[in-house]
Amino acid sequence: MNNIHRSLYAALIACGIAAISGTAGHAADESPWSEDIRSAVRIVAGTNKYGDAQLRAGIEIKMQPGWKTYWRYPGDSGVPPHFDFSNSENLKSATVLYPVPHLFADETGQSLGYKERVIFPVVVSPQQPRKPVRLRLRIDYAVCEKLCVPAEGRAELVLGPGNSAHNSELGTAEGRVPKQVTAAQAGLTARRVNTGTKPLVAVDLAAPVSQPVELFVEGPTPQWALPIPKPVKPAPAGRAQFSFELDGAPPGTDPKGQIDLTFTVVTGERAVEVKTRLD
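The structure corresponding to this sequence follows.
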């Protein structure tokens, strides 16, 4: 074998190793769909760089026309999704983010969720950042039209460096996740206005004059099921006001005690999340 042939052979071997490494790191942009009766689930990859301490992915749910699924707090009815990544490989943590939900109202009450399609962004932290993550998902969720139907899905995708055809849609979903701000930044205050087993809570916050405002509230743990706050009108210019009963607390909760609350404020296309304490 002459020197030219040796050089060509070495180059081909190097290209082959690079191709194999690239394939192992980022084999596909998405997993196959995991079909259920009225819906399907898959994992999609975002564009990631080699050695990133965090990788970007998304869990996509598609539903038949007219069907919906739920936010982390479903409202008056419904079931929030449950995500299980316990069988994944090289996974340190996977944090699911929730795009701002839509408020639905029907004869059963008010609920919070997504209609026909949603992508939940996932922040993936590898145990070893220079190795790919094999993300294995089991999800239990519900889809509803007039009646709710339980659903489940399983999906698997190798995450590593590479560009993804889903990066733009994933970026849009990430942009829909409420940004965390302080109560002072949101101009938000919450206070009890009476006493009793289910005190009324009044919420006042800054709001643009020309846009409607929606407000959702969550308790300190998933065992809480607080009602969706109702707008109080008229409100002063530049302000929005809401109220809700401190109902749906776990048994044994002191309604007069300190309670950590999480508010999601939706103003047009902008949404923020505010954590505050009800003293």
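Confidence is low (pLDDT under 50) at residues 1-26.
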